[in-house]
C-alpha cells in the first residue's frame, strides 16, 4: 500500500500501520532473503495448540523494525541526546535480526545445532546475497556494522540494547504479535507507554522510574506467554514429533537406507553439511513436502511419525519430574510391548524457564545487557528493576525447568502405565 512518492506503509494487526520512508529499507524488504521469511512460521508447531498461531517471521521482522522506528521518534520528540548517526543502523538491524531462521523457526535449532543468529550474520556478510549488496550500497562496511549489532559486538551498546536486551524491540513485538495471533490476552501490555517512558542514558536503554508498573506488566505478560503459549504441552508435543521425524530420517541416511529426499538441500540439512545457498532454499514448505512423501516410506517408523505430524496425531504428555527417571526403563519396555521403538516414541522434553535474566540475589552481576534499569532523573541514579519490584522478584526466581514425558496415546492409557506411577 502506498501513501506518497516517498512513503510506503504496511497494514499490521499489532501496530496499525508500519511506515517505511527509507528507500534502503524498502529495498531490503524486497530482497529474496527477506521474502523467504514469509514462508517460515514464527511459532513453529504452536499452531497445533493455537490454530491462529501460524503467522510468519516476515511480519514479526517488520514489527521489530517499526518498534525501533517508534523508539527513535520518541527519543527525538523528547529531546534526548543519543547518537543520531546510528538511527538507520538500528532500524535495519531490527528488520534483519531474524533473517537466519530456518524452517519452523526455533523448533529446528536443536536438530541442526546452529542458532539462527549465526545464519543471520552469514547471510549479511556473504557478498552473493541481495541483502549484503543492498547494505553495502549504503557504504563500505555497513553490512559488517549490522552483523556486529546482531552479534552484540557493535561498539555502541545503546544500539545493541534496542535490538537485543531485556526490554528490546524484538521482545516488545513478538509478545504482542504472538498474543494477537493466538487469540490469548496473556501477552498484552501498554506498548505505547513503554516507548514513551524509555530513554537513552549513556550506553544503555533505561526507563523512567515512574513507569515501573508498565514494565512490570510487560514482564508479567512475558512470563504468562511462556507458560501458556511457548511451553504449552501441545506446542511442545508438535516440536517433539518434529524432532523425532528428522532424527529418524538422519538415522536412515547414516545407516545407508536413505529415504526419498524431495528437495536437493535436504540431505545436507540432515547431515549437517549445509552451505548458505542450500540453507536459504529451505522453508516450512520444504519439510511439509518431505513429510508428505515420507508418510508412504518403506520405513514404518518414519512413515508413522510423518503421518502423525501431518494429521496432528500427537503424543500424549504428562509432567515428568526427575524423581520419576528411575521408571524410564520400565516405561520404555511398555512402549516396546505396544510395538513402538522407545528411541522415537518415549521422549522426555525439558524446557528452561528464564523470564528475566538478572534478579535480586542472583550470583550474576547486573549489566546494561541483562537487566532493566529504572532512571531517577532527580537524583541522576539508576536502580535495577527487580531490587524494587516484588512481582518481578517473584517471577525472576522461577527458574525450574518444565519436564514432560511424551508417549503414544495407547501407552498413556494403558492401565499398566497408571499402576507403574502409583505411589510416585
From TrEMBL:
GO terms, molecular function: dGTPase activity
Pfam family for this entry, one: HD_assoc_2
Taxonomy, superkingdom: Bacteria
GO biological process terms, semicolon-separated: dGTP catabolic process
Residue span(s) of domain HD/PDEase: 53-184
Name the record gives this protein: HD/PDEase domain-containing protein
